[in-house]
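Two proteins, back to back. First:
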Amino acid sequence: MPDSIEWIADAWNARGLYVTCARGLSPQHLAERMADHEPLEVRSAATLQEASSLVDMAQVYCVGRIGQAGGWSFVVESGASEGWALDPAVSRGAEVLIFDPRPDDPPAFFSYHADGEVQLHFELGAGYDPAGSRPDLLRPDLEAAGVIPPQDSIDDMLGTDEELSAHAQQRRVLAVIGEHFGLPLPRQTIESGRLPAVVTRTAPPSSW
């Protein structure tokens, strides 16, 4: 599909991008639900570098840029994001996908929230140990793509012969996620273009 999201893994290698997407919410509404303050101010369009420069770690801890593609809204953040602890209530009446690189505490992870509940959560690292109310949602797709061996197979117990780097594994998993959810993310626009900026965090994450 166009704008396959596997490029997110490349961005994770180059910089700490936190990507949150929603279907059923406008970009601004998604950002409002994610923000730790109100009212949310939508600022002028900015490049990724310009948005990152707004983070001062005193009054601004995280800045996002908002947009929309293929029926999905997205917020791409830089700074001290807390995607790993985003309240599932953000997904009330909607679907929310979270892609968090966790640069300070790897591995990266993916979460799918819908109607206020965690449907699926798993780490993009060694092994596959999904959680949530629908842990097997992506298993058939991941098996078909050769990302994980069939459940209860010998390979599932002993591991496959194919050795993939962590980066290659992330790219393959992200491609499956993007295809399953019909999620296109415009790489050029996000990495090189200008998008409206929003401050999503004015205080340190609660984990600090």
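And the second protein:
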Amino acid sequence: MSNRALLEVIALDVEDAVAAQAGGADRLEMVTDIAADGLSPSRETFAAIRAAVDIPLRVMLRRADGFAVGDLAGLLETARGLRAEGADEFVLGFLDAEGGPDLAAVEVVAAELDGCRWTFHRAIDRAPDRDQLRKALAELPGLDTYLTAGSAAGVDEGLPVLLAEAARAGEPGYGARILVGGGLALRHLPELRAAGIDAFHIGGAARPEGWGRPVSAAAVAEWRGALG
């Protein structure tokens, strides 16, 4: 059985995607407008990236900054359009006014995805009760991953939470894979790997020259090498 960890890299365009794959990324998270923490890409961008690389793509379903679902009808239209282009893995997550999971919205979107695999993104790090959120979402079809730093402030502060949740793997609400991202640094990897965490997500770390510059294949390769 392989001990290879999954490395997911944020891609904004074809150049990013090609460099990430060349560096050894296992999967891409496709977004646009990183200033808004990542919104849904266009169908055209998805199609261009899908044609350029042959690793899995998880596509963001989010139309506005923040964690409220906003225009649900528009979001479902976006999902249908991306699926029509061949998208079959997604990233989403919505909170209600109290910060809990917006179950109604998440259930409707999950139903639209009709069994496609999806990640609940870092909205979990803004929720006041992570355990309640996990248990509320546990039975939704397709949910297989939580993208989390353990804290809204990033992995430095969230590390104890990540380790505690990893130790609960298999309990009700804790069946989905932990994908660590948000202020993740190479120095965090030994402790996370020792805890059994095997999936990692990088964005800025793949761009040593900043978000205004494309993904560096060399930077991705450094992470790939560190993960084994």
